[in-house]
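Action item from last week, closing it out:
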Amino acid sequence: LIFLTQFSTQSYKTGQLFYSYGLIPSVLMGHKQLPMDLYVLPGWLTIFSSMFMHGGFMHLIGNMLYMWIFADNIEDSLGSTKFLIFYLLAGIGAGMTQVLMDTHSQVPMVGASGAIGGVLGAYLINYPNAKVLVLIPFGFFSQLVKIKALYVLGFWFILQFISSGGGVAYAAHIGGFISGIILILFFNKKKKEKKLFLKVHGINELYYT
């Protein structure tokens, strides 16, 4: 909905929207200031606004595909509220990793990829043996193959290190993935503590719907 809203605006076509709501390292770190006609939010808020922006339909579709495949299991495990908190925290980790790579960069970063990287990291921890349907090209032909998430996500993570260029914030992907791995350990711990509490006090968790 946010993408469709921004896509219809003139500022999207001119690129001004990305400078106003995208995460710009030099602005966040106080090295630069936006012109008044571009200033909409304080720099720290663009960490969040940038997560809900996309550069085009293919950018959006690619991110939503990863969300569709991996995020539902994590949300089912954590619950919607905790998942949202987890997602935003992973996005912060991703954004700050990209910022720290070059604090003087004036290039705005937009997209959900970093936060989704956190979801992938969480999936790797919680469901390493789950089978993921992968399309593998063989020349002119392609084959759908089920592969363990451990291998699929491990390959994805390694790919972020060896890829470069193309206007992709690979550092954000890496930072989000690592943030997700760390965060899910804390979220899992809280969940286990709740289950232990319920068990000790003789409460059936089935009653809590």
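Closing note: The two ends are 29 Å apart (CA to CA).
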